Amino acid sequence: MDWGMKNRMAHVTKPDGKCFFLPIDHGYFLGPTSCLEKPGDTIKPILSYADALFVTRGVLRNSIDPLKSKPIILRVSGGSSVIGEDLANEEITTSVEEALRLNAMAVGMSIFVGSKYEKQTITNLGKLVNECERYGIPVMAVTAVGKELAKRDARYLSLCSRIAAELGARVVKTYWCEDFDKVTNACPVPIVIAGGPKCKTELEVFKFVHDGLQKGAIGVNLGRNVWQHKFPVAMMKALHAVIHKKASPKEADEIFKDMKNKSKSR
């Protein structure tokens, strides 16, 4: 790994080797997502706890203060919406030149293994890696499943993650699942855990994040379980403690409740 690649990777991870990526890219296929209608306002109170932002170029330019930002992971794939025929029908939408212009520390795109558009999205990943390696930009591959959430088991996610690594991704974003160590053990590059749909309880979030870290993940890329929560700052602080301070799920829940009570008393 050359100097530029190492330096960019060091910007999106902390010295402890862990990371907390905050994704606010959901609008590229969901439109004005609930609680993300004004992304800049949404992230203001929680940004300090994040290590990097995963965002599209449009939101970056129009909603993120360049003087007060965290390192940027730029979403560079898209092409289908939630009301379209198939979310898997994605292409590369943003050039590497644009990523450099926006001073992105990394770029991210989705692959849809097992879908009608499997070859298209995997080939797109290979092409993106070819170009990004030339400029020392890490590529994060997102093992997306579209609407087919039933696919999220260790066998399937191991397949997706390994393929992404084989194609040259420097980081893989994938879902947590039972027997998550089977996924991390089979992937030769770092894995970050996707947040997925909103969980029913805070403790549920803390438990899957903690388990994933214990089983080999380097961090999370988690959004909706934070900024759609009634107490997003409390969630961010608690998750930050799990990731960077080795807090247990129970300790994280106590941190959350303490912050929640303080917010209520103001």
Layout of SSEs?
Layout: H1 3-12, E1 19-23, H2 27-30, H3 39-43, E2 52-55, H4 57-63, E3 72-75, E4 77-78, E5 91-92, H5 96-101, E6 106-111, H6 118-135, E7 139-143, H7 154-166, E8 171-175, H8 181-185, E9 191-194, H9 202-214, E10 219-221, H10 224-227, H11 232-244, H12 249-265
Parallel strand pairs: 1-2, 1-10, 2-3, 3-6, 6-7, 7-8, 8-9, 9-10
Antiparallel strand pairs: 4-5
Q: Structural class from helices and strands? A: alpha/beta
Please give the order of strands in the largest beta sheet: 1-2-3-6-7-8-9-10
- By CATH, the topology is TIM Barrel
Helix count from the secondary structure assignment = 12
Which value, in Å, is the CA radius of gyration? Answer: 17 Å
- What is the total domain count? 1
Query: First CA to last CA: what distance?
Result: 49 Å
What is the overall silhouette? globular
β-sheet strand percentage: 15-25%
Q: Would you identify the CATH architecture?
A: Alpha-Beta Barrel
How is this structure best described in words?
The chain has 266 residues and is an alpha/beta fold. It has a single domain, classed as TIM Barrel (Alpha-Beta Barrel). The chain is built from 12 helices and 10 strands. It has helices spanning 3-12, 27-30, 39-43, 57-63, 96-101, 118-135, 154-166, 181-185, 202-214, 224-227, 232-244, 249-265; strands spanning 19-23, 52-55, 72-75, 77-78, 91-92, 106-111, 139-143, 171-175, 191-194, 219-221. It has an 8-stranded parallel beta barrel, surrounded by 6 helices. A two-stranded antiparallel sheet has the order 4-5. Helix 6 links the parallel strand 6 and strand 7. Helix 9 packs antiparallel against helix 12 and helix 11 (232-244) runs antiparallel to helix 12. The longest helix has 18 residues, at 118-135. The radius of gyration is 17 Å and the shape is globular. The chain starts with a helix and ends with a helix. The relative contact order is 0.13. The mean pLDDT is 95.
